[in-house]
Each structure stands twice: as C-alpha cells, then as structure tokens.
Amino acid sequence: MLARRGMITVSEANSLSDSQTRFKALKPWWDVLMNYLLVIMLMVSFFSVTLLILMDKVVCMPMATKPTKNMSSSPPHAGVTYLPAPEDLGHLTNLDYQQYTYVSHVCYHKTVPWQSKYFPYLALLNTLLLLVSSNFWFKYPKTSSKVDHFLSILAKCFESPWTTRALEETTDQTSPEPVRLKPSGSRSVEYSPSTPCLNDSTLSSIQLPISTILDRKEEEQAKALFEKIRHFRSQAEDSDVVYRVYMGQTVFKVVTVVIVLGYTSSLVGSFSFHHICSPGIQNFMGYSVFYCTHNLAYILEKLLLTYIILVSLYTLMGMYALFWLLSRPLKVYSFEKNHEGSGLGDIPEVKKDFAFLLHMVDRYDSLYSRRFSVFLSAVSEARLKELALNAEWSGDKLRELVSRDAKGRWELRLSMLPAIPRAVYDLNEIEVLKLELISSAKLMGAVSKLGSLSELHLSHCPAKVDPDAFSFLRQRLKVLYVRFTDLEELPPWIYCLKSLQQLYLSGNLNSSNNKSIRLQSFHGLTSLRVLSLTSNLSSLPSAVLEVAGQLSKLRLQNSGSELGSLGHLRKMGHLQELELHHCQIHRIPGVVTRLTTLQSLDLTSNCILEVEELETLQRIRGLSTLRLCHNAITRLPPSIELLRNLEELFMSYNRLEALPAALFSLVKLRHLDVSYNCIRAVPPGVGHLSRLQSLVVTGNQISSLPRELFRCTRLKLLHAGSNKLSSLPVEVGQLPLLSSLVLTCNSLTALPEELATCSLLRRGGLNVEEELLNTLPSDVRSKLS
Q1: For 117-148, what is each residue's pLDDT tens digit?
Q2: Which one, 137, 270, 547, 559, has least CB within 10 Å?
Q3: pLDDT per residue over 151-197, tens digit each?
Q4: Spatial separation of the C-alpha atoms in residues 733 and 718, rounded to whole Å
Q5: Across residues 717-738, what is the average pLDDT?
C-alpha cells in the first residue's frame, strides 16, 4: 500500500541516509554547512510553492466611482481623491458569486506582478539546481568511481588490524627520529607502480617490529590493501579530473548564487497587497474598475527576505571554499609535512587526484590520512611481505601462475616480490623461470628439485645462489637472460656456467668513465654458442673475444653509438649468424667476407647509404639471409646477382626507387621484403623467381602488379597495401597456395572473381576494405568469409 501511494519506506530512507553518510569523509565543514543551508532553502521554497498552489488568489470588489489618475496604482485609503456619485451611495452591486470569481481570475493574471506568481517556483528550481551541483562530483561517472574506490579503501585501511599494530609499534619506538628509507648507491628512484619498494640493502637495514603476528586472514587482507592502493595510486596520479570537477562545481555554485542574489534583491519591496484592476467587462457587469487584494503578498515578501539571507550565507560559504581551493597547492600532498614523526619512513609525495582526495580527508579528520599512510609506507609493506611471503605464495597459488610459453614449455614468472617463495622449488615441471624486480632473490639448494629447469631470466634481479644451487645451475642451465642497469647487478656466478649455451645480456656494459669494459672473463662458459649484447658499446669487449672461436651466433644491439674495431670478428671462424643493430655502420664491414661459414647477416637500423660491397659477399657461399632494413639505401647494384644462394632479402624502410633486373636472377629467393620504399613498379622479371613464397611491397608507389608475378605459383603471402593499385589482375587465381593477401589503402574499385579459386584465402587471409569486398558476388564472398 505504501508503494502504491508513492510513499518512501523505512528501508529506502535508511539506504538513502547510508548513501549520504558514506561520503562524509570527503565533505569539509563548509560543504556540510552549505548542505544544511540548502535543506532550509528547499523548505522555504517548497513552503512558498505550497502556499501558491493552495492559497494563491486575489479578491476583487467593484468600485462604483471613477478613480483619478493616481488611483490606478494606489488604494483608496492612501489619500487618493475621487468624486463619489450620490445616487450610487448604498446601492447594491447585484453581482453573482460566479461573476466575482471570474473577475478575480482575470484580475489575478492582469494585475498581479510576475514575482508574486512565479518567484517561489524560481526559488525552488534554483535550490534544486544548487542541490544537484553540490554533490555532482559524487555522481559524475569519471569521478564517482574513483571517489567510491578511494572511500572503500580508506574505510578498510582505517579498520585494518595491520594499521593499528603498525601505528602502535611506531608510537612505542624510543627513537625520536622516524625510520627513513635509504636507497642503495647514490641513485634516487622515483615512485612508479612497477618500481620495487625496497632493495636488498634496504630490507636488511630496516626493521619494523610487530609484537603480535597477524593471522592468515588478516595478512591476506593487509596484502590486498597494499595492492589496491598501488593500483589506485597509479590511476589517480594519472589525472586531476576529480580536482577539476570539484573546482568547476564550486565555481558554478558561486556564480549561480551571485546571480540568484542579484535578481532576488531587486524584488525586495515589489510585493503589493492592493491592486486596481480594469478588466474591460463593464458591458457585462456594469462596473469598469475593481479594487483587489492579493492575500499572499505579505507572507511572500517575508519568505523572500528569508531566502535572500540564506542565499547570502551560502554565497559566503562558497567564496570561502573557492578561496581555499585557489590558495593552497592541492595537487601535491606530503606526508612528511602533514604527519611529522609518523615513524613509517619516507613516504613519497602523492600528486594530482590522489593528493586532492587526501587534502579533503584532512579537512574532515587527519586521523584518516594518518592511518591511510601505513599502506603507503615502503617499510610497512616490506615487513608485511616478509612475514606473509611463504604463507601467501603457497604451492597451489604458484601453480596457477605456471603457463605454456610460445615454445610450449612450462614457464613461471615472478615479479616484484621481496624474495623467492619456497614453494617454487616444489614445481618440478618448470622449464623456464623468470624473476623480475626481486631485490633480495636467492636461489636455494632446493632448486635441484627443478629437474626440467633449463632457462632462467633475471630482470633487474641480482640473484644470489648458495653452493648447492650453483652446482645444479652449472650443470643444467642452458639459456640465461640478464637485464640490468649497472654492471654491479650482474651476478658473478654467471661466468662459471660451463653448460650454458645461450647468454643474453641487456644493460650498461661500460663503466662510469665510459672508457673500459668491466665484463669478467668468459673462459668458464665452455659450451657457449649464442651471445647477445644489448648495450652502448664502442668496441667488442675482450670477454667476447675469449669465446670467439666457439660462437655460432653473435647479436650486438647498440644504443645508437658507433661500434668500432670490428676487425676482431675475423676470429669467429664458426659464426653462422651475425646481427649488428643501431651500431652507426655506414657500409657493409669488409671483415664480414672473412666469415666463410656465415648464413645470415643482419645490419638493420644503421646508416648504410650504398651497398656496392655486395659483390664481396659472394665469397660467403652459404649466405642465405640478408637484412638491411631501416637504412638509407637508394639503389641495389647489379652485383647482387652474385649472391646466388640468397633465399631471404629484407630491404624495408629504405629509399629504393627501383628494383634492378639482376635481383630476379636469384632463383633461390623465397622471401622478398621491399616495403616502405619509393618503388614505382615491380619489374616483369619477378616471374623468374619460381621459388618465391612471400612478397611484401607495402608502402610504396606501385600503380599495378605485373601479370608475370602470378607465375610464381609457390607464392603464399602477398602484401601490397598502401600503394596506388587501381586493379588486381585476374591471374591472381593462378596462385593455389596464396593464404595471405593484403590490399588495403589502394585505389581499387573492384576485385576479380578468380579470388574464389584461392582456397587458402577462405580462412580469413584476405585483407581489403569492406566496401571493396562487397563488389564481389555473394557466392564468392561467402567462400572468402
């Protein structure tokens, strides 16, 4: 029955009250006062509207005499003179009730001013507008989710047992100075969600004693709060939308109330109780002038004065809020300044929306932000993780992280943990172990349980090993990836892995003075066959030369600095693959011709302008792959025909304007990539490449494809997008193995129906615009879809 009558139930009222109280921590005192003022303003305006609806009317009586000029605006008792008609004195009006009602309605709309009839409605609308705008930032989609998330985390931090115990311990500490984090070395690390909170030296030097050990559930809740705050911080510090919306809402409210105050003040004294009305109906009633009274004039004027007082107070509160917003740096929050002597260590400053929300919380109660700071402290987090690591990372949980990599091997990746969980050593199926940003990682002797482990990744993780673990890794580890910042991060035990076959090093291999290489000797890597160095080398390290005779693949990726002294490459008599990237090479090194066993040469991303030295490469009989991408080569010399065993040629992102006829004498060529050059045409000689399987000419200026191209019946991949093609030859149907065809961003108007004969294209290998595909018959489209 209550629902049918449109009434609000008690449960609905409670839920509405709860929804308002949950935002109280983000409501400073001025917002609270302004909300109370809005409630009173709403009551005043609603009362005024109710009076208008129920009681608003005028009462009119006929005047038997003609008033003077001033009587139209003044009541008869205000000293206005008029001439009475003696014959009408005491004469009955002879008017019916309906006539009085009619005159009253007419005179109400004709003589009563607009403010008497509509001001209460305007006041109600203005109040509702202010009411909506006052909590707009709690409802706006881009801010409400962030505010709700922040408040939920804040409440959990306030009630967490870990917060209470951490604050108790820091309060009971006898040292007056707070515990401070001291980063190792002289480098300072700025906060980011991916940056480890503590390194090994920091963990060993900082202790935050916890007298009472938390139970498992409390530990899990505290750890979850740390992670939630980390993610929330990374999102909240990306933008200042909450600050801008609150600022905009405050400015809007101030401007609105100033306008309201302006027009309402002008209405003071304009309400009138007496009105003279001339409805122009003398022929029907015998009277031309009526004297009317508006029964709500007095009360409306008092309500107007009350409303003006309330709006004035609201304006003062809004001005103060705006002054507070503009006078303080609210986009930066420092815990050191706001909570001196917290004992939780140096908590980095927070910025943007995160900082603004903390400032708003401080206006309510600084205790909230103080308890919140426990979960922003690296010291507090490190201690909790130290206590909960092994309990949290159980074998079942770690097993959920094990997955298959691209080669089908079982892989486990651990990132940003204080240490390696002991349960890792129970996952004996692991073949690849990746450790990232684990500052105090140490491999224990139990690693020998991982009998299938053959590949290890260390990313900014200077892992230590005990003797038993070293003995196991020395005998079993085959592949090692190490990513580091300085040479000091390189674990010394990696130089003694005699079974290691592949070593990938990425980091700064030069010392601080940039003059000498401090890599230790590679003599102990007796099985090393593949070596990759990603660094800023100016010459080959001497350690590389120690294993030159046993390497089959060398990959050097520089940071753009020039790599000199390539003459040492001649010592690599068994080298089969050579990659030199970003090494500022201006021509094909002559020493390459000494590498008679070379099969693949990759000089991508260098400064090569001409390749006249190609003829010298004919000495390398087994050369089958040549990569010269991302250079500035303008032409291929005719001598390229001397590379008769070449099977793969990659020349993308150069400045080629034409393809020489000699190129098409390489009958063994299977893959040709000349994308993103300035080529205007594909010569008909391409038809001689009978073994061609892939042709990539994307991003050139080709206007047509030669029909001879489609004699290459082994062609599987043809990419010709971003050219000037106007048509596709019907001979494309002669390619039975074609499985990938890209023709986007051309000038094609139609596609040949012969595409339907390319059966492998039916698996989604055709990439063209949708409107171009619609030019094909429906049966052909259905085959290709």
Answers
A1: 777 888 888 888 888 888 888 888 888 888 88
A2: 559
A3: 887 877 777 777 776 666 655 443 434 333 333 333 333 334 333 33
A4: 13
A5: 92
Which tokens in the block code for residue 338? 């706001």
Q: Are 716 and 693 in contact (CB under 8 A)?
A: yes
Report CA 458 to chain centroid distance, whole Å.
Answer: 27
Could you give the 3-state DSSP secondary structure of residue 94?
coil
pLDDT of residue 64: 63
Helix or strand holding residue 320 (H, E):
helix 297-327
**SS3 helix, strand, coil % of the chain, rounded to 5?**
45, 10, 40
Cα separation of 40 and 59, whole Å? Answer: 31
CB distance 574 to 597 below 8 Å = yes
Length of the chain counted residue by residue: 785
The CATH code that applies to domain 22-138+246-325 is: 1.20.1440
List beta partners, residue 602: 579, 627
* Res. 208: pLDDT tops 60: no
Mean pLDDT of the chain: 80
CA distance 431 to 217: 33
Cα–Cα distance for residue pair 196/184, rounded to 1 Å: 13
What type of residue sits at position 255? V
CA distance linking residue 488 with residue 486, whole number of Å: 5
Find out whether 344 and 178 touch, Cβ atoms under 8 Å. yes
Strand pairing partners for 534? 506, 557
pLDDT of residue 384: 72
Q: Which amino acid, one-letter code, is at 599?
A: Q
Please state the φ and ψ torsions of residue 59, each to the nearest 5 degrees.
-115, 125
Give dist(CA 614, CA 621) in Å, integer. 13
Give the residue from 255, 263, 259, 260 showing the smallest Cα distance to 114: 263
- Mean pLDDT, residues 570-587 taken together: 91
Helix axes 216-236, 378-392, angle to 10 degrees: 130
Fold of domain 680-785: 3.80.10
Per the listing, tokens 């709500």 go with: 296
Sequence ranges of the domains in the chain? 22-138+246-325, 143-240+330-387, 680-785
- Residue 137: other Cβ atoms inside 10 A: 24
How far is the C-alpha of 115 from the C-alpha of 296, rounded, in Å? Answer: 12
- Classify the C-alpha dihedral 95-101-106-108 as positive or negative: positive
What token pair was written down for 689?
């490449």
